[in-house]
Design goal:
The protein has helices at residues 29-32, 41-58, 63-92, 97-113, 123-126, 130-135, 139-146, and strands spanning 20-21, 24-25. It is an all-alpha fold and 147 residues long. It has a two-stranded antiparallel sheet with strand order 1-2.
């Protein structure tokens, strides 16, 4: 128990429509501030930085298409992480004892079934490879490069 408890506000926001404007791009909390309940804020910032660096490296100096690529690779993922962080708040900070008991029973089942591994529904979050995402070739990137 702490001798000096304090209250602080936590803020997040809905995903932005765009992270880029010309040759300027947002990353990290400026693009997708999120609640701490999934411990992903700094992780998503590092993924952003890596993907941005790789897309700029591949751009041949053509920055606007590289920024479009960066945004297309990151925006949906970070929006999903934001949503999961909001859900985690509801899941882990319940006040109703009956809801807590039901949740804990589910966790016991998960612990027995998936001991020592991530739950299958968490693979998208914890198994993400930012380098593979940035270096992958797809039709969208080729179209941007041709443009």
């Amino acid at each position: 128990m702490t001798d000096k408890p304090f209250v602080t506000a936590l803020y997040d926001r809905a995903p932005l429509d765009s992270w880029i404007n010309g040759r300027i791009a947002l990353l990290g909390d400026s693009a997708h501030a999120m609640l701490p309940y999934h411990a992903q804020g700094a992780v998503q910032s590092m993924e952003d930085a890596w993907v941005l660096a790789r897309t700029l490296q591949q751009s041949g100096g053509d920055i606007p298409p590289a920024l479009e690529r960066y945004q297309s690779l990151r925006k949906d993922r970070t929006a999903r992480v934001q949503a999961q962080s909001q859900l985690a708040e509801k899941r882990f900070h319940m006040s109703d004892p009956e809801q807590v008991a039901r949740r804990n029973q589910k966790f016991l089942h998960y612990d027995a079934q998936y001991q020592g591994t991530f739950l299958p529904q968490q693979e998208w979050l914890f198994g993400y490879d930012a380098d593979k995402a940035a270096l992958g070739t797809d039709d969208a990137w080729r179209a941007l490069r041709a443009w």
